[in-house]
Design a protein that fits this description.
The chain is α/β, with parallel strands linked by helices. It has helices spanning 22-26, 41-49, 64-79, 94-101, 121-125, 140-153, 170-175, 190-193, 197-204, 224-227, 245-250, 268-279, and strands at 2-5, 35-39, 54-60, 88-92, 109-114, 130-135, 157-160, 185-187, 208-212, 219-220, 232-237, 253-256. It has two domains: 2-114, Ribosomal protein L30/S12 (60s Ribosomal Protein L30, Chain: A, 2-Layer Sandwich); 121-279, SPOUT methyltransferase, trefoil knot domain (Alpha/beta knot, 3-Layer(aba) Sandwich), CATH 3.40.1280. The strands form two sheets. Strands 8-7-6-11-9-12-10 form a seven-stranded parallel beta sheet. A five-stranded mixed beta sheet has the order 1-4-3-5-2. It is elongated, with a radius of gyration of 21 Å.
Amino acid sequence: METIKISDLNTEELSIFGETSEIQLYRYYEPEPGIFIAESPNVVMRAIEAGHVPFRMLVEDKLYDKEIPPIVSELDRLHGPESTAGLTVYVGDHETLKDLTGYALVKGLWCAFRRSPVMGLREFCEGKRRLAVLFDVVNPTNVGAIVRSAAAMGVDGVVLTHGSVNPLYRRASRVSMGTVFQIPWTMATKDESEGVNLIGLLHEFGFETAAMALTDKSVGINDTRVKNAEKLAIVLGTEGDGLPTEVIEACTHTIKIPMYHGVDSLNVAAASAVAFWELV
């Protein structure tokens, strides 16, 4: 492991922590899987425990002695001493890291990891009974919160459409508190995500589908026909627009959460937690 004190913010190796966008990180080694950045000690440790090995780290100088030794120890334990052989740790003070990353409140620790290929949809769905399906959910905060709720409530896996935010985007993984590394998830391909293709594939794989939407045909999330489904995929849409009409109509069920005091809906992340609690 090599430790380098930052002397030049324009060092090419540091660009992935600051000016490089999430899309650029995702495509970094295209056509091979790219890079993701994990922020904060908790998220970094969850990534390592899930089998990911960092190749570059950025840490605030005053946190080095607290945060780096446990990470190195865990890497050695899980992946052997060779896992840190090519690791480079860049160290800087608070102001330097703030200038580099653009965050006024820096988290003190960033790690860069190579992405792994995602599992194909058919293989991913095998052996699972309860799925969360995120249909074009584009807010990383919502994706992270939904994944965290899915993990906590015992959902077997999360499927995201091609148009959804990737769970390994740094804000999504941070909001999830690292649970993106604790629950299985996959991204449907562009073709699989087109129109109602994904719903059709889930039906083909033996799942009933439940669209969370407010329509005249919606039933409560405690409806026994939904709760008793042997295999169920709970389909959630993006904040504001919700699910496309064609997707709602293609689903086996349309479900809603009973509301009071004139409230007609919840944030999609909050609604997901309620639905998972009731239906898993």
